[in-house]
Recover the amino acids of this structure.
């Protein structure tokens, strides 16, 4: 009975436990050192024990405290917590929120055939555009990203280093991510591939890492990536007016020459288009020099009729 009573009416667990021990001790002493118990004159032992205990407990002022729920106070605290949380989240993610809310006008720079142009981006990065190239970039970069789009052509990117804000170039189905480095992207629409070549630093192309003197080749038809080793300086020789071909098929070589020298090149046999060619040429090399080197590698010949050139067996 003693434990059950105190479990229902405890106000302070330690005080109740001490009281319980004290009452038990008193009752034990009464049992061990009394005069012999006489049921006829004193009544049944268990009934007498209950009466004594009830009198002791009745003298103890035990009250049960019930908490009072204050809805207004709870609502005020909850509202304050929500407000603090909202402000905290807004502070932590303010840059992301601003990037979502703010849009900047796009600037498009386009070069004609036979010309090159240098463009300085809002962050100080410099892009050199090859002939027949179109680049799109925002008037101002966002707080969390620096993204530009190479819509057509070839460009060399000298990216200003910024560890906090990555730089991204979208070209077709390729996405090139850097923090600060230099690389070249050749993404002419008439090419079968998109080629990304690193000259310094590290570059990630569709999550594949590239180091200096490495090139990622994206095949448009199969949507596959292939990594190659080469001399990166050859791939950017176009910036000084030179030309470089790295295992390029004849069809690609012809297309490059057509745009550089404003000629029309055809093949007497379609199979010739699939022959491959690797070579570098200086700015002083003429079209005839390139045609000689191109045809000699496969034992071919060429004919020139005004601005039309035919390559044949």
């Amino acid at each position: 009975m003693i434990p059950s009573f105190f479990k229902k009416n405890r106000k302070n667990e330690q005080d109740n436990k001490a009281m319980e021990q004290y009452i038990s001790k008193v009752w034990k002493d009464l049992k061990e050192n009394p005069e012999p118990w006489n049921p006829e004159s004193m009544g049944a032992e268990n009934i007498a024990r209950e009466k004594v205990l009830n009198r002791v407990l009745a003298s103890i002022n035990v009250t049960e405290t019930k908490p009072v729920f204050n809805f207004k106070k709870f609502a005020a605290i909850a509202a304050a917590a929500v407000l603090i949380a909202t402000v905290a989240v807004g502070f932590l993610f303010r840059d992301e929120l601003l990037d979502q809310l703010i849009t900047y006008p796009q600037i498009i720079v386009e070069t004609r055939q036979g010309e090159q142009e240098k463009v300085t981006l809002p962050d100080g990065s410099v892009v050199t555009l090859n002939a027949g190239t179109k680049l799109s970039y925002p008037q101002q970069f966002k707080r969390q990203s620096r993204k530009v789009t190479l819509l057509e052509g070839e460009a060399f990117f000298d990216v200003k280093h910024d560890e906090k804000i990555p730089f991204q170039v979208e070209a077709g189905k390729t996405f090139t991510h850097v923090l600060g480095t230099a690389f070249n992207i050749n993404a002419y629409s008439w090419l079968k591939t998109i080629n990304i070549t690193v000259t310094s630093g590290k570059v990630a192309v569709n999550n594949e890492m590239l180091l200096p003197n490495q090139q990622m080749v994206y095949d448009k038809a199969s949507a596959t990536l292939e990594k190659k080793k080469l001399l990166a300086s050859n791939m950017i020789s176009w910036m000084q007016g030179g030309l470089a071909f790295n295992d390029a098929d004849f069809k690609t070589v012809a297309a490059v020459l057509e745009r550089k020298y404003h000629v029309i090149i055809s093949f007497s046999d379609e199979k010739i288009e699939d022959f491959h060619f690797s070579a570098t040429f200086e700015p002083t090399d003429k079209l005839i020099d390139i045609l000689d080197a191109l045809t000699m590698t496969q034992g071919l010949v060429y004919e020139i009729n005004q601005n039309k050139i035919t390559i044949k067996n």
Residues 1-10 have pLDDT under 50 and may be disordered.
